[in-house]
């Protein structure tokens, strides 16, 4: 019988709907003491490490989760399940994915409906995550996200709908597996990637979204000594209005790394177009293209890279991996 460490962090999965229809945090997580659901099949070790809404999640708390999981490597734990609010679940999952070695399966899950709503999905997702963490097939696939019977990689999964229980999707690539009758079925392999065992999460990195008619004023606002990096959600395959270029050149001249992703929900950023502001031009300037990540995840990757002490070339290679 396997032993699974359950780390509750809060979120909708732990909240309740009040008479007035508002959803609020409980003093005590209703998912605590659910061991009887898997009695005789799985041994659960349960800890309420946080009890916060997911907009309250920080990089420092993500680092605390990472360190708790690394401690579990020495405690005869076979896998980890983390319950988490859905607003920032993909960011926590991705942070853990690029800072933890593949020692044991790590699975995140959450809910779109609070614990006492009709059709609540929290308990079902939680149990599905436990079965996934128990599966031998889950080993070596990095951090996984399990929601609504589907298994996704932390690298590419994202929240696509504000309220629908089928909100978590993997654009372009799709889920890598599914859950059925307490079993996992994997249909895809996972790309290997570099892991950085960092001990700090310092650095100011902002995300700026491009739009038609954009000039350099937003970039000028962050052209200061506090800025350690910038992520741009660019137009299309990876293009920007030409009016932004002088400001970007000034930032690059100060050795501030600039990472470019697409603002599109599908596809990857590429240097395809060779015109002023086009991707070919931007790449020649020294802007780093991050293939397949969205803006928030590219920000996390840049912060992890900065805290790992990489030089400029190693940082560029890490971000474009």
From TrEMBL:
The active site is at residues 12, 86. InterPro entries: AsnASE_II, Asp/glu_Ase-like_sf, Asparaginase/glutaminase-like, Asparaginase/glutaminase_AS1, Asparaginase/glutaminase_AS2, Asparaginase_C, L-asparaginase_C, L-asparaginase_N. Keywords: Hydrolase. One of its GO terms (molecular function) is asparaginase activity. It catalyses: L-asparagine + H2O = L-aspartate + NH4(+). SUPFAM superfamilies: Glutaminase/Asparaginase. Its EC number is 3.5.1.1. GO terms for biological process: asparagine metabolic process. It is an enzyme of class 3 (hydrolase). Residues 205-317 form the Asparaginase/glutaminase C-terminal domain. SMART domains: Asparaginase. Substrate binds at residues 54, 86-87. Belongs to the asparaginase 1 family. This is asparaginase.
């Amino acid at each position: 019988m396997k032993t699974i460490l359950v780390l509750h962090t809060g979120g909708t999965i732990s909240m309740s709907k009040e008479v007035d229809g508002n959803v609020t945090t409980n003093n005590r997580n209703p998912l605590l003491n659910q061991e009887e659901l898997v009695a005789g099949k799985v041994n659960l070790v349960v800890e309420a490490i946080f009890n916060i809404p997911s907009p309250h999640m920080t990089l420092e708390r993500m680092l605390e989760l990472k360190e708790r999981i690394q401690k579990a490597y020495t405690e005869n734990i076979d896998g980890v399940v983390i319950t988490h609010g859905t607003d920032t679940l993909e960011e926590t999952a991705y942070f853990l994915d690029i800072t933890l070695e593949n020692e044991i399966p790590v699975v995140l899950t959450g809910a779109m409906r609070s614990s006492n709503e009709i059709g609540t999905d929290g308990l079902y997702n939680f149990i599905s995550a436990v079965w996934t963490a128990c599966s031998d097939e889950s080993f070596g696939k990095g951090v996984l996200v399990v929601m609504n019977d589907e298994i996704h990689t932390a690298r590419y999964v994202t929240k696509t709908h504000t309220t629908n229980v089928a909100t978590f999707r993997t654009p372009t690539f799709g889920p890598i597996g599914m859950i059925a009758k307490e079993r996992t079925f994997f249909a895809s392999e996972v790309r290997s990637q570099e892991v950085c065992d960092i001990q700090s999460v310092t650095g100011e990195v902002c995300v700026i979204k491009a739009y038609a008619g954009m000039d350099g004023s937003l970039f000028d606002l962050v052209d200061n000594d506090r800025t350690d990096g910038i992520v741009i959600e660019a137009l299309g395959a990876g293009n920007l209005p030409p009016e932004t270029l002088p400001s970007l050149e000034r930032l690059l001249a100060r050795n501030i790394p600039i990472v470019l992703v697409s603002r599109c929900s599908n596809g990857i950023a590429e240097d395809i177009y060779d015109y002023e502001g086009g991707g070919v031009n931007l790449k020649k300037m020294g802007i780093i293209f991050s293939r397949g990540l969205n803006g928030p995840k590219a920000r996390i990757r840049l912060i992890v890279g900065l805290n790992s002490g990489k030089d400029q070339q190693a940082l560029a290679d890490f971000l474009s991996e």
